Amino acid sequence: MIIMILSSYVKTVKWIRAGLFLGFFSLAAALLLVGAGFLYMRLLGEPEVAVPQSTLYFSADGQVIGESRASEKRYWVNLDQVSPHLVQATLAVEDKKFFDHHGFDFKRIAGAVVADIKAMAKVQGASTITQQYARNLYLSHDKTWKRKLSEAMYTMRLEMNYTKEQILEGYLNTIYYGHGAYGIEAASQFYFGKKASALTLAEASMLAGIPKGPSIYSPLASLTKAKERQNVILQQMEKSGVITASQHRRASAEKLRIIGEHLHTDIEIAPYFREAVQQVLADKLGADEQTIALGGLRVYTTLNREHQRIAEQTIKKVIADDSDVQPAFVSIEPKTHFVTALSGGKDFKESPYNRAVQAVRQPGSTFKPFLYYAALENGYTPATQLKSEKTTFQYDNGREMYRPSNFNHRYANAEITMEQALAVSDNIYAVKTNLFLKPETLVKTAEHFGISTPLKPVPSLALGTSGVRVLDMVNAYATIANGGKYEEPVFIKRVESANGDVIYEHEAKSEQRFDKKQTAVLTHMMTGMFDKNLSSYANVTGASMAPKTTRPYAGKSGSTPYDYWMIGFTPQITAGVWTGYDNGKEIKKVADKHYAKAIWLDFMEEAHNGKRVKNFPMPKGVTAVTINPENGKIASSHCPVTRNMYFIKGTEPEKYCTDHSPKKKKPQKKEKEENWIQRIFPIF
């Protein structure tokens, strides 16, 4: 018996020893596993916190003109930009011990398990703010063990690498508040139309209750349930000691005004312009599509909202609704080369193709100012004369023939000045000049003006037969308006990251590419299209527009059978319009041929309305001379038609016009004597 007892005792001791031994090694293995996991997570480092946020676009006056990701509103704000009431309300209802635990509230977890067992259902949550943040950032909201394990790992990594304030800030900026509002700033703006920093206790306590069930506790879904949830939160805040009973009562009784509208919902503001800005972000700043769409950038553009409004309304007013003609419009501020307005078509929703920056179309006679600038640089003056007559040109050593014609086949059949040739758009004068200078000269000049499309060095280039982009053309004219200073078109003034760091700021890089005096001469020549004194065998091309102008304009119109253009400027604004069919078919309707000029003139007149009239500058070294435009000579007081022309000093004409000198009248007495003699002696 004793032996049996001893034997049993020995076996028990062995089992106890084995159990202790196994327990020790299990504990050691568990500790080793935990330590390895801890080390692994340390080696992984801090998890990347990349929250998709709306990129906002601002006009030149700081107003939001649009945003990416319009269906989901996400605006990141720092913790100190959130109302303390909201922070306290969120902590009271979501995680009272947030600043005391390390990511997990084990007591709360145990309590939730007990509550769920008693109810035989999931009735109480135990996720901390850190766990919810991890879920919002990295995980789906399914209930699998794999997801829960991943959530635990991300929770630990967040706690190991970020401060409590950083985690709380992240949570408040990512939690969903319903109706497409992600984060407290978007929610505050949507529900109450104010910044998160301005929330009252009543507003904050209502917002803090929504994330538990946005479709249930949103005041727009059920004001009754939203108020019930608000009172629960106020009770928790009072219990926690962050508010008094009096504050509780006042907040509960406060009548709240629910707005229920998101900011920046008007996506109609300058959609073509914003698309061009996105292209600049990609091309010039190297931003990828994801960063542009989801990076939370703040893009401060050059858009003048008033210019854009006028442009869009004018296009809609001028072009008939049933017309298939499409427009492209660009306006630029000459001194800065800031693009102030841009439209690439009639309707962005119907056709997002941006004709202002993508389409390549023939510019027609709007190309001639580049030719005549080259002519000025090569010895021509506004008074230089060439014969306007029907002409067949031979080139390429006589192997090629070119027979241009003037509009309606009207020719002076006499010599005309370069200033008149530009004003009436004489094609013969232009082709002669192009061949005299050699077409390669025009190609180089146009490229220097910023024309980026390939140009063919042929005689017809003077008449705009090589395709160009509207943006390039308008910027080239802005260069003329800016006294020959060139800069690429500017769309963006500044770009900030989601954290407010400036990642790009525009620096002016203007370059004096062209002679200031010659561009002043060219500018004055370009005012001629509105001056009836230059009409002769043909009317100046702006004759129909001139009576409607209220200030000096310089410009040039142009047309081909398929394209109609008008580009011009004042010292304050340069604007250009192209109209045509996308399929390149010929424009035959008379009304369709006038759209470009009508849009341009209406825009310029309204955009300048109320602004001081500014004359074009005449730099030192340029002189104005009154000329007879018919012969290019200095006008006398007897010339019936005159025009002031600009010349570089030393190049102005020296000869005076004698074509209109008064005939000497014979004395009256002598005339009577002659008449008397003739009556008597008819032979005389």
Helices and strands in order:
Elements: H1 2-44, E1 56-58, E2 64-67, E3 73-74, H2 84-94, H3 106-119, H4 129-138, H5 145-161, H6 164-174, E4 181-182, H7 184-192, H8 201-208, H9 214-217, H10 223-240, H11 245-253, H12 271-283, H13 289-294, E5 298-301, H14 305-318, E6 326-333, E7 338-343, H15 368-377, E8 385-388, E9 393-395, E10 400-402, E11 414-417, H16 418-424, H17 427-437, H18 439-448, H19 470-481, E12 485-486, E13 492-496, E14 502-505, E15 511-512, H20 516-526, E16 554-559, E17 563-569, E18 574-580, H21 595-607, E19 622-628, E20 633-634, E21 643-648, H22 668-680
Parallel strand pairs: 1-5, 3-4
Antiparallel strand pairs: 1-2, 5-13, 6-7, 6-18, 8-11, 9-10, 12-15, 13-14, 16-17, 17-18, 19-20, 19-21
Transmembrane segments: 20-41
Subcellular location: Cell membrane
Domain Penicillin-binding protein transpeptidase: 329-605
Q: Can you describe what's shown?
A:
It contains 22 helices and 21 strands. By secondary structure, the chain is α+β, with helices and mostly antiparallel strands. Among the domains are: 1-44; 71-253, Biosynthetic peptidoglycan transglycosylase-like (Penicillin binding protein transpeptidase fold), CATH 1.10.3810.10; 621-684, no CATH class. The strands form seven sheets. Strands 2-1-5-13-14 form a five-stranded mixed β-sheet, with helices on one face. Strand 16 and strand 17 (563-569) form a beta hairpin. Helix 2 packs parallel to helix 8 (201-208), helix 14 (305-318) runs antiparallel to helix 21 (595-607) and helix 15 (368-377) packs across helix 17 (427-437). The longest helix is centred in the first third of the chain and has 43 residues, at 2-44. The termini are far apart. The model is unreliable at 119-124 and 668-684 (pLDDT under 50).
